[in-house]
Amino acid sequence: MRIIVFGLLLSIVILNWLWPLPLPVSVKFLVSIFVIIASQYQFWSRLSSGSVFAPEFPRPLIILFNWAVGTILFLTLFQLALDLGTLVVALIAWQPVFIGTSARVAVGALAGLLAAVGVANALRVPHVRDVTVTIRGLSPLFDGYRLLQLSDLHITRLFSANWTSRVVARANAASADLMVVTGDFIDGSVDMRRSDIAPLAGLRAPDGVLAAPGNHEYFFDYAAWIRHLSGLGVDMLENQHRIITRGTARLVIAGVTDCSARQHGQVEPDLDTALVGAPPDAPVVLLDHQPGDAPAAAARGVALQLSGHTHGGMIRGLDRLVARGNNGFVSGRYQVGSMTLYVSNGTGLWPGFALRLGVPAEITRFHLRAE
C-alpha cells in the first residue's frame, strides 16, 4: 500500500508537473532523481539508525529532507487541484484546455515556499502561551499557582542541544511553581541523545519537574530512558502521584504510562493505581501523554488533564484528520464533563515530518484559579 501511495505521489509530481516543463531532459532527469531520493526519507532514516523515528544525519540534511518532503506533498495537492480545475473548465467549454508553464511554475514555487515556512515554524523555540484554568475545590492557597507544561520535545539531531538549551532557558524564565513534561522527550537511544538531552538537567521550579512517559520513549529502550531522565532530575510518574502542599492545602499531580505500553511489554496506564493513597479532597491534575482517554479521567474525578501527542495536527486542516485518531481531541482546551482537558501543540516535533502551518508550537503556562 505504501508503495502504491508513493508511486501515485511521484507520478503526479514527475509526470504531471515536471515533465511538461520546457527544461532540458538532463535537468528533468536530475530533478526526478532528487524527488525520488527525498520521498524515501524514512527509508534513509531507518538505514541511518535502525528506526524511522531517529534520522542520524547532519542537521542541515534533515532540514533539507523535511523541506523536500513538504514540497512534494504540497506540490502533489496543488497539481491535483490544477488538473481537476482544468478538467472542469474543459468539460464546461467542451474543448481542450492546457496547463501553461506559468501555472506550473507558480504552483511549484508556492509549494516550495509553504514547505520552507512550515519547516522554519517548526524549528523555532516556542513562546510561552498563558492559559487560565479554574479548578473546583482548589484551595485559595493555590489560587494563582503557575504550572508550566512542556510536551513532545522530540530531542534529536534536528532539535539538538542548542535548541534544548534555549527551551530550558525560556521555561525557567517563565517563573513557574511547577514544571511538567507530558511525554515524547526523545527519538533515539540514550547513547544517541545523551548530549542533546543533557540541558534538561537545568530545568528549575520550586516544586520540581514531574513527567509522564510518551509513546516514543517505548521505541528506544524504555527502562534505560526512565533511568536516564530520572538522573537528569525529572521525576517520572509511572502510574504514580505526588502531592504539592501550600500550608494545609494540597494539590495532587498524577501521571500514567502511555497506552502504547502494552505493545512493548511494559506496565499499562492505570489511573486507579496512580491515585492510590491520594487525599480524596484534593483536586487532581493528570499527566497523560495521549488525550484519547480523557472521558475516563473525567469520570474518575480528575480536575485538569494535560496531554500532548497530537502536535496540534501540525498543519491547519490536517488537524481534523489527527483529531479522528485521538477521540476528537487535537489542540487546546476542551471541557470533558466537569474536567478541563488541555492538549498541547507540542514544544518540538517528530523530525520525520517537521512542518507547522497555522499550528504553532508552545510552552504552556497555566494559571490555576480557585472557583
UniProtKB/TrEMBL annotation:
Keywords: Hydrolase, Membrane, Metal-binding, Transmembrane, Transmembrane helix. The keyword Transmembrane applies. Signal peptide: none annotated. This is Metallophosphoesterase. The chain crosses the membrane at residues 30-49, 61-82, 102-123. InterPro entries: Calcineurin-like_PHP, Metallo-depent_PP-like, Metallophosphoesterase_sf. It comes from the Bacteria. The lineage of its organism: Bacteria, Pseudomonadati, Pseudomonadota, Alphaproteobacteria, Acetobacterales. It comes from Acetobacter orientalis. One of its GO terms (cellular component) is membrane. One of its GO terms (biological process) is lipid A biosynthetic process. Residues 146-312 form the Calcineurin-like phosphoesterase domain. GO terms for molecular function: metal ion binding; UDP-2,3-diacylglucosamine hydrolase activity.
